[in-house]
Amino acid sequence: MPLQKSWVESANSVDSQFPLNNLPYGVFATNSLEPRCGVAIGDMILDMFAAEEAGLIELAEDAVFDVPYWNDVMELGPEAWDALRSRLIQLLAEGAAEQAAVAPLLVPMSDARMELPMVVAEFTDFYAGKNHAVNVGTMFRGAENALPPNWLHIPIGYNGRASTVVVSGTDVVRPNGQTKAPDADTPSFGPCKRLDIELEMGAIVGTGSEMGHPVSVTQADEMIFGYVLLNDWSARDIQAWEYQPLGPFQAKAFATSISPWIVTRAALEPFRTSTPEREKELLPHLQEPKPMLYDIDLSVTLQPRDGKEVTICETNYNEMYYSAAQQLAHHASSGCAMTPGDLLGSGTISGVEKNQRGSLLEMSWGGKEPIDIGGGQTRSFIEDGDTLTLHGAAKGDGYQIGFGTCTATILPAVKFT
Ligand code: MN
Q: Which domains does the chain have, with CATH numbers?
């Protein structure tokens, strides 16, 4: 599919993250506008509260854009999502009859402060990238025990915290926690010394499922509203001490950052791609009937407080072993109820090469091989004042489906004993 042209000129540039083909959903505020839903087009945001009030958008009998979150739209289901997308394309396409009515409802992105696009119902994080799992497993348990015996049969996950999911741009305070060095007799408490990122995609569940009712992988795919970039901040020293036998807890609970724009499944449709060949055949309830991953270029940059921004990782979402649809089907397979606004982290996305690794733990191989970040500086883990940014875009023919960025600066730990 080529670039679809809009009367919003900035959306037609090959460099625009938000052409008419994209139309991602966010929540924004300005100095004069209360937080509200918006749709990105070029360097502008369409004010959905105003568009609905003006009668340009009518999705349901009751208003759905009178609240600053997208959960009400999610609950309407896939037919309404398609109707909304078609209407937005109609309103914003080149030659639209409604241009004069819509133009005054556009707000410059540069005037907007982004907020979380939805009420995050619950957060689950998976561990579904094989390169990452092998790398981390090798460091934590040795090469022969790198992949746990269940890994090739189910997407392993843990239930995380929705309460500390924050939007891009929110500072993250270095966590305190209990750790024990391998050569120490007793544990100690204090600021995390091995603070890390995890480059992930977040899938947002749009329609829920009922308790006691599993869903197929096909149904799961149709339940997904869209995707965001997700940084699953990780305290490796806290994690190493606490993680057995129930998995990560405080090492992950202090913060998870997401990008502000939900890129819809419809926008990503041209970029569908298959998961890699199975090394062990999956049981029927987890098999995929069609390609359910996406070809999305991803990268990570690090900017020290007193230095230049440098790219430390370049990889692609197509490196995952399990898709979000498989993860969602697995999640509901016991009868676990899924809810509109549930956020599913993909697991760290790492390629095979060293510069494709999605965590500092892997890049610096547990701190043994610090990476060069220029200006005479190296990093094994994150230092206070560092700004870490995830970038993502699916690259089409003369256009891209951009995710914007997912960024945060690390502040020093709170003094606490
Ligand atoms: Mn993770």
A: 9-115 (2.30.30.230), 123-411 (3.90.850.10)
Tell me which of 132, 330, 331, 391 is the catalytic residue. Answer: 132
pLDDT in tens, 225-247: 999 999 999 999 999 999 999 99
Q: Which helix (H) or strand (E) holds 325?
A: helix 324-332
Active site residue 153: no
CA of 325 to the centre of ligand 1 (A): 17
CA of 141 to the centre of ligand 1 (A): 18
Q: What's the CA-to-centroid distance between 198 and ligand 1, angstroms?
A: 6
Q: Tens digits of per-residue pLDDT, 47-67?
A: 999 999 999 999 999 999 999
**Residue carrying structure tokens 């509901």:** 332
Burial of 314 (0-12, 13-18, 19+ CB in 10 A): middle
What's the CA gap between 292 and 412, in Å, rounded? 40
pLDDT tens figures, 26-39 = 999 999 999 999 99
List the helix and strand counts (H, then E) for the chain: 11, 26
Q: How far apart are the first and last CA of the chain?
A: 58
CB-CB contact of 288 with 217 (8 Å): yes
Token pair in block for residue 157: 């996950």
